[in-house]
Amino acid sequence: MEPTPTTVEGVRDVGPDTVALDLVTPGGFDAHPGQFVKLTLDVDGERESRFYTLSSPAVAETFEVTVGIDPDGDLGPRLASLEPGDSIEVAGPFGSAHYEGESSIAVLAGGPGVGPAVGVAERALRDGGAASVVYRDDDPAHRERLDALREAGAFVTVLDPETELTDAVEEALETTPDAQAFVYGFADFLDDATAALAAAGGDPDDAKVENFG
Fold first, then answer.
1. What would the mean pLDDT of 47-61 be, rounded to a whole number?
2. In which region does residue 101 sit, left (phi positive, over 0), alpha (psi from -120 to 50) or beta (all else)?
3. Average confidence (pLDDT) over 75-89
């Protein structure tokens, strides 16, 4: 979809310096959990754009992106200060590391990767599949949704940055056999996660990987 104005439905705190931004789905917009969009906003007379990955399991009427807030950033604080009814421009979706109806999924997420992780896992469970999530962060976000995933039958583990990933990944793969692996996060996490996948008996070459920079 070409750049299109849409409306803010709501902004919610979902963790330390993290908000979930709910947007009205424009006509003709369709996306899969794990894809990303480009958001553009006027900031002090300049157009500022950033890419954010969907964190909602569906996009029928509204969709959600999760935004980490750098207090010194140009766009993040402005997104966090938006109110229902405000306008913002959206383009996309983009990306191929998304959910495609797999019956068993294992999501490895670092930092902001928790956004797509919860969206993909929720959608897999909604579709009757199995899901596991291994999430590493020093200030975890989306705790309520992670707890809800556990209660719904998903394997979910949250690790601090000093904890090695392999044991948790191995347990996730045992819990969700023949899982399609998804990996979301910054480059250093991707290195750790793909190495853990290999050590745990998975195939990192088959993983759907999104590098956040």
1. 95
2. left
3. 94
